[in-house]
């Protein structure tokens, strides 16, 4: 049958070209493109691994800076607290010195005022004694008609006022 012989010749030719095209595609794509794609995938994997390693190093460095900064901060805080305590102590000492000086001035003024008050009291008492003596002499003269000397009236007024 001529149709079967023709089919066989046609299909053999088509199988040959099919195998030839697949072989060409295999070598072009499989050998040429796949190696480039594999190289790109490997390069990308290395880049990602390098980036992750760099990020880990940066994190470790940041952690060391944080701990170093924390130590520096604690040191600076301690120094600041020491300076504040020293300033507070100096201020308290200065305030105490000013208070002592003011206390001494007030004590001196108080002593002076007490002296002035004692002098004024003595002067007032002397005046009161004189007035009392004169009043007593006048009262005795008017009431009893007797004359009292100024010395007697003064001694009687002094005795009466000493009890007050």
Written account of the structure:
With 164 residues, the chain is mostly helical. The protein has one domain (2-120). It is 95% helix and 0% strand. The chain has 2 helices and no strands. The N and C termini lie far apart (172 Å). The model has no long low-confidence stretch (mean pLDDT 87).
Question: Helices and strands in order, then pairings?
Answer:
Layout: H1 2-143, H2 150-162
Helix pairs in contact: 1-2
What key phrases describe this protein's structure?
2 helices, 164 residues, 95% helix, mainly alpha
Tell me briefly what this model is.
This protein is mostly helical. The protein has two helices and no strands.
**How many strands, which pairing sense, and closed or not: the largest β-sheet?**
none
What is the radius of gyration computed over CA atoms, rounded to a whole number of angstroms? 62 Å
When the domains are counted, the total is 1
Strand content: under 5%
Tally of DSSP helical segments: 2
Helix percent band: over 70%
**Uncertain regions spanning at least 5 consecutive residues:** none
Q: Which structural category fits the helices and strands?
A: mainly alpha
- Along the chain, the helix and strand elements come as HH
Q: What integer is the average pLDDT?
A: 87
- Spatial separation of the terminal alpha carbons: 172 Å
Give a count of the beta strands, DSSP E runs of length 2 or more.
0
So what's the overall shape? rod-shaped
């Amino acid at each position: 049958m001529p149709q079967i012989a023709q089919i066989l010749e046609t299909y053999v030719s088509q199988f040959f070209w099919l195998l030839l095209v697949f072989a060409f595609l295999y070598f072009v794509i499989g050998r040429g493109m796949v190696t480039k794609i594999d190289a790109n995938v490997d390069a990308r994997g290395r880049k990602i691994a390098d980036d992750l390693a760099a990020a880990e190093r940066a994190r470790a460095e940041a952690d060391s800076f944080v701990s170093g900064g924390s130590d520096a901060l604690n040191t600076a805080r301690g120094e600041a607290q020491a300076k504040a305590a020293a300033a507070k102590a100096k201020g308290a000492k200065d305030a105490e010195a000013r208070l002592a000086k003011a206390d001494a001035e007030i004590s001196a003024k108080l002593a002076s005022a007490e002296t002035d008050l004692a002098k004024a009291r003595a002067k007032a008492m002397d005046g009161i004694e004189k007035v009392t003596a004169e009043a007593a002499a006048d009262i005795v003269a008017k009431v009893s008609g007797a004359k009292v000397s100024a010395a007697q009236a003064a001694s009687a007024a002094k005795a009466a006022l000493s009890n007050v």
